[in-house]
Design brief:
The complex is a heterodimer of chains A (294) and B (150). Chain A is of the alpha+beta class. Chain A is built from eleven helices and 14 strands. In chain A, the strands form four sheets. In chain A, strands 4-5-10-6-7 form a five-stranded antiparallel sheet. Chain A is globular and about 60 Å long. Chain B has a five-stranded mixed sheet with strand order 2-1-5-3-4, sandwiched between helices. In chain B, helix 2 (81-92) crosses helix 3 and helix 2 (81-92) packs across helix 5 (138-149). Chain B has helices spanning 22-29, 81-92, 102-114, 121-127, 138-149, and strands at residues 2-7, 10-15, 48-51, 54-57, 70-72. Helix content of chain B is 35%, strand content 15%. With 150 residues, chain B is α+β, with helices and mostly antiparallel strands. Chains A and B meet through strand 1, helix 2 and helix 6 of A and strand 4 of B.
Chain lengths: 294, 150
């Protein structure tokens, strides 16, 4: 039977209340869904003196289409994202991730904010948000700020979020991405429940048989989730063809530094990353062209 | 600290340490034994309870988090027609062996049907994440499917 470490508990009634508490108490952790935090506390990975429960702040649970962006409140659950017609329509990569995210009971509790702020190198929502170039709105006693997600992840469970800062919402600007073909692939040791061995999220925009924009992001292949810039550089301004995807997939080695851990050896991760890169570019291109592809 | 919530239709009040998980409160303080202790890490589903109608894992929820909410375990569904139909199907289809996973699975199946998530064998497979070491799942899925279609 696991024992939780002793801590003082506060239930935050509002965002303002949460900001106040977080500024006041050091070595505090925010409790959102708890699907990462409680497990980490049970296994002794984190030992906060204070736990600030923000799970009741319903005002942070929303999915809003502003016309120019999709804005998702940080306490929106993974199941909310899976159930949302506007996510399916406007930011389908997020729905793809939610489909493969743990299982129903976990999805009902886990939040998108918790997933990215916990910042495991295997964070499921990192690759799609990196591909969408989302912007994170945060708040602290010093006010609000906006952090591009591409600058957010720093290392294993390390982000640019300050100790007294709270993530409020994830903003996904549409730009021309509504025309993008998408692809998401997650390899784990099982078909469900899993922490990824490698997962990839790709977006491709094709005009006049030329790839004018490509975003490829992976997790579990480095100390933080990465955008595969070397891969993207190969395909930009090229035609969507298998030979191009093959060439691009070989470059992924430059963007990642996989390690061996309990789930897979480094060599396997590298091998899979190359295959997924090629396949994700292919699938995203097919979707972008919205027709059969040779 | 005092936490008040509704358990199987009745208001309950418990004095808990903030670090007390719902699983322990239910089993030790409220004597609800149907909710099972297994992995305690959110991986197996044995500790599943319904909170405001949705299945969640009581081993990774702090009891203060359910303040003011409705918690349902199998003890609270004994008079429910769909629940009884599920039990009958489980028994008739050999979907229960040791029975340890069964309460969690019944709650998930009941909620899955009520919430409209489980409408076909494929969607049952998708929404039934609970682990079972005995049955191999097929008879469980068939039992649930029969409850939807018959």
């Amino acid at each position: 039977m696991y024992r939780l470490p002793k801590f003082e508990y506060f239930k935050a009634r509002s965002v303002e209340n949460a900001v106040e508490l977080l500024s006041k108490y050091k070595n505090a952790k925010l409790l959102a869904g708890g699907t990462d935090l409680l497990v980490d506390m049970k296994i002794g990975r984190v030992k906060p003196d204070y736990v600030i429960d923000i799970s009741g702040i319903e005002e942070l649970r929303y999915i809003v289409d502003t016309g120019e962006s999709l804005n998702i409140g940080s306490l929106t659950t993974i199941q909310d994202i899976l159930d949302s017609p506007v996510v399916k329509n406007k930011t389908p990569l997020l729905r793809e991730v939610a489909l493969k995210f743990a299982y129903w009971q976990v999805r009902n509790t886990a939040t998108i904010g918790g997933n990215i702020c916990n910042a495991s190198p295997a964070a499921d929502f990192a690759p799609p948000l990196l591909s969408y170039e989302a912007v994170l709105r945060t708040i602290s006693s010093r006010g609000e700020r906006f952090i591009p997600v591409t600058e957010f992840f720093q290392g294993p469970r390390q982000t640019t979020l300050r100790d007294d800062e709270i993530l409020l919402e994830v903003i996904i600007p549409y730009k021309h991405l509504e025309r993008a073909g998408f692809s998401y692939m997650k390899i784990g040791r099982r078909q469900g429940h899993d922490i990824s061995i490698v997962s990839i999220a790709a977006l491709v925009v094709i005009v006049d048989n030329t790839i004018i924009d490509a975003r490829v992001a992976l997790n579990s292949v480095a100390s933080k989730p990465v955008r595969a810039r070397s891969v993207e550089q190969v395909v930009i301004n090229r035609e969507p063809a298998m030979i191009v995807f093959e060439e691009a997939s070989r470059q992924v080695e430059k963007d990642i530094s996989p390690i061996t851990d309990i789930r897979a050896p480094a060599e396997y991760r590298l091998h899979i990353a190359k295959i997924l890169t090629r396949e994700a570019l292919l699938e995203a291109s097919k979707r972008a062209l919205r027709c059969g592809f040779e | 600290m005092i936490t008040r919530f509704i358990l199987n239709g009745k208001l309950v009040e418990v004095d808990v340490d903030p670090g007390e998980i719902l699983l322990n409160t239910l089993r030790f303080k409220l004597k609800v034994k149907s909710v099972k202790r297994s992995c305690e890490r959110g991986e197996c589903g044995s500790c599943t309870v319904l909170v405001n109608g949705k299945p969640v894992l009581s081993c990774i929820i702090l009891t203060p988090q359910v303040e003011g909410k409705e918690v349902v375990t199998v003890e609270g569904l004994l008079n429910d027609p769909l629940f009884n139909k599920l039990i009958k199907n489980f028994i008739e289809n050999g979907a229960i062996q040791c029975g340890f996973c069964t309460p969690g699975i019944l709650l998930t199946a009941w909620a899955g049907i009520k919430e409209g998530k489980m409408t076909s064998i494929d969607s049952i497979r998708e929404y039934l994440g609970n682990l079972c070491r005995c049955t191999g799942y097929v008879k469980i899925m068939n039992a649930i499917y029969k409850a939807i279609t018959e």
